[in-house]
Amino acid sequence: MIYLRLFLAFLKVGAFTFGGGYAAVPLIRETVLSNGWLDDAALSELIAISESTPGPIMVNLATYVGSTQAGFWGAAAATLAVVIPSFVFIIILVKVLNKALASEGLKASLGALKPCIAGIILATGFFMALSNITGPLSAVEPDYTALILTLILAVVYFGSRKILKNGLSPILLIIISGAAGVAVKCLF
Questions:
Q1: Is residue 137 over pLDDT 60?
Q2: What is the DSSP string of the chain?
Q3: Following CA atoms 70, 73, 56, 85 in sequence, which dihedral angle do they give, to the nearest 10 degrees?
Q4: pLDDT for 83-92, tens place per residue?
Q5: How confident is the model at residue 140 (pLDDT cuts 50, 70, 90)?
Q6: How far apart are CA 159 and CA 11, in angstroms?
Q7: Rounded Cα distance, 36 and 39, in Å
Q8: What value does the mean pLDDT take over residues 140-157?
Q9: Where are the domains of the chain?
Q10: For 20-44, what is the mean pLDDT?
């Protein structure tokens, strides 16, 4: 039965793929080609399409292969099978972590890491802003437009925190930043 074959094949892909969706591509290729579900050219096109569509590439590939082989229910079987191992692993991990987080030693270690992580994020943001404003650090030439935009966005962000209860959402700030960048490129 095709549904069971799809389910078991993509369950194997989901269970034995570590490192993200791109790490799954060789295993998916082997599975699809050995079962004769698609030829190599069609699979290559599918990989390119899956990379450019929203969602995880492994799920997109499983859904499409299942759909081509057995319609809607084939797509459902392959998609469900490819995500079940990760889902189960995350549930188990949460249970284990909840017990581990009760440990005072682990709590203290994680508490000590918070300032380090904040520093790394701050340093990365500072470096990105500085390199955006000055260009490559090997040839320092200030980009005054980038400097002005950065200052304006900083004022908007910190000003919104004073005016609004929670400030601007990061998504809205990204949209404002993108619109400001497009406006500057169009005007100058």
A1: no
A2: -HHHHHHHHHHHHHHS--SSHHHHHHHHHHHHHHHTSS-HHHHHHHHHHHHHSSS-HHHHHHHHHHHHHHHHHHHHHHHHHHHHHHHHHHHHHHHHHHHHTT-HHHHHHHHHHHHHHHHHHHHHHHHHHHHHHH-STTS----HHHHHHHHHHHHHHHHHHHHSSS---HHHHHHHHHHHHHHHHHH-
A3: -110
A4: 999 999 999 9
A5: low
A6: 50
A7: 7
A8: 78
A9: 2-100, 108-187
A10: 85
Average pLDDT rounded to a whole number, residues 70-77: 95
What span, in angstroms and rounded, lies between the C-alpha atoms of 123 and 117? 10
- pLDDT for residue 144 is more than 70: yes
Q: What are phi and psi of 103, to 5 degrees?
A: -70, 130
How many other C-beta atoms can be found within 10 angstroms of the C-beta atom of residue 115?
9
Structure tokens at 70: 């057995």
Question: Hunting for tokens 């998609």 — which residue is that?
Answer: 79
